[in-house]
Model the fold of this input.
Amino acid sequence: MQRLTGKVALVTGAGRNIGRAEAMLLAAQGAKVVVNDLGGGSYGTEAGDSSLADAVAQEIRDAGGEAVAQYSTVATREGAEAAVQQAIDSFGRIDILVNNAGIVRPARIDKMTDQDWNLCMDVSLTASFHTCRAAATHMIAQRGGVIVNTGSPSGFGHWGMGNYSAAKEGLLGFTRSIARDLGEFGVRANLIRPVSHLTGTFTPEIQETINETARLGIPLLWNRPMAAPRMTALPEHVAALVVWLCTDAAGHISGRDFYIQGDEVAVLPEPEAIRTSIHPGGWTLDAFDDEANSSYIFGDIKNRFVRAN
Done:
């Protein structure tokens, strides 16, 4: 069964790994696909290689699907608009936007450069703003569409990834907001958090610090020690979640956050207050010092990130 016959999809960062798998499965399900990839590397410094997008588009065509390659950087407004326009020019519409492009620039915060921050934000957050804005105009006009943005468990907190964590968690707030912006027009937006190996290899200095921190039992990612087993979901498994979210079967789902690791898929909760206290007349320092208040609100909170003496 082809679930997406007649649909047109744009996938950014589709030249390899998860993006490639998403493009391939979308095409296998009947969608016409724009394969966008600048052809750079995980750190955002390598020169572009158009052969990556070309190869995926050709692979789709060889399998009997319809696809075109597109090479602009979606980190700029012009590049993102060009990618969306390619869908319009080639196939007449855009029904699905999958934002997969992203880079990492790992560094501890005191050693993170402006370039580390800005490049990561441009590709891992701002690019999705550019593509969503460009696609939204067409989706509103046609009264329908689906957007899937790619977040990360790094958004829960990740050693040496302050820039990437901020970008990916910012993307969640952005996704929840555009789901509200576009819902009245029949457009849905969701976010996925795959456990992947985008981080590649660290410098020896960073790796040494990571190893030492892990030995001390300090959680490097989320609140789980990195020594704990962490299975990476295969690209085709992540693609299955993404493509299913683009089908009519998921027509009731928007503004939500999904985690996928190994064989596990989880729906993450909406933000909620886990403990609430009210102090008549408003809060003061003395009110926070009061034992009953302090014990109730803060009593079980522990700092897990200090080095033991």
